[in-house]
């Protein structure tokens, strides 16, 4: 199966006054369907830039990005916007739910923006909320939900429809450990259903949920973990 | 891990046979600490000698078929042990810390690279524990607790490596006059 995300020698340079800042330097990264990759690094290492480039929110200075087999650089603005709505789901630390919409309306929004009828989009939204155990929260507004529930609604919004790539930036940052664990289980379950996910974080506990952990320092991928180990190797012989 | 007190805890639920004690110990510690038969019976013999447990046949050797029950003294001992904090007062001599301390004074050592080798290894271990928790943690409370403890322990080491990495980046090039172990000993009064 082809990769849901491929970064090939991606670099990003900003101008800070007259100084050039190299946020990313020749980064290669491939995410297969059904896999979770964690990108781990300290603040300022370039991990959030990597995520915004993977999510077609920013363009690289050089290098190639393919999402679900499509090269972003050769796409029109409209096509890129459609790809963002249809194929990519985003989860941010601060949830980014719209306060005037209910949980179900928030989840249905990307489908409606993509031209689906309100009725159909709402049904699809309710279906995802139900799958994620949030059916009884569907008609609540974000300020009537706990932090953990808001993040779970945000994940529902990120996986609704036919999403292939889930991008998460410190998704458990503001949550207590039990709620954070529930959020990571949700992302893992999304992967088990075939979605490819990239989680950027500075937190090793969060990163340890991933199939592969990529370490980033000063804009460069410096190392990665070995292929997924088996739990049996832990127990004493 | 005190096998002695774990056995007292199991016996506080009611009289048990040697074999049963061994099986229950393993299942309650998430099967992470398997015991050998000898350890169980030797410990039971000592507990009997110290009058913390009694057996149904004091003259026979401890074995799978010998029954034991806890004494009042054993119950008091267990209650006191549960409330006694483990000794965490002096800094443990951590091998990882020592390796990094040696690396920063070694001419030509690539310290960030050395730190990354350990970081990768720790994160890989954490991946294994998290996977175990994901697969078994829902059904086995004891295992989930053991895994949590191990994840926090490993996480604290990764955090220390991250902090060390950041500190090294900001640190002046010249080495410190006094070595870190000397300073720690002076400040905490830890003796060799």
UniProtKB/TrEMBL annotation, chain A:
InterPro entries listed in its UniProt record: AAA+_ATPase, ABC_transporter-like_ATP-bd, ABC_transporter-like_CS, ABC_transpr_LolD-like, MacB-like_ATP-bd, P-loop_NTPase
Q: Which PROSITE patterns match?
A: ABC_TRANSPORTER_1, ABC_TRANSPORTER_2
Designated name of the protein: Macrolide ABC transporter ATP-binding protein
The organism's place on the tree of life at top rank: Bacteria
Where does the record place the ABC transporter domain? 5-235
Any one GO MF annotation of this record: ATP binding
Q: Which SMART domains match?
A: AAA (SM00382)
TrEMBL record, chain B:
Disordered, as annotated region: 169-192
Q: Which InterPro entries match?
A: Tscrpt_reg_PadR_N, WH-like_DNA-bd_sf, WH_DNA-bd_sf
Gene3D superfamilies documented for this protein: Winged helix-like DNA-binding domain superfamily/Winged helix DNA-binding domain (1.10.10.10)
Location of the Transcription regulator PadR N-terminal domain: 7-79
Protein name per the record = PadR family transcriptional regulator
The organism encoding this protein is Paractinoplanes tereljensis
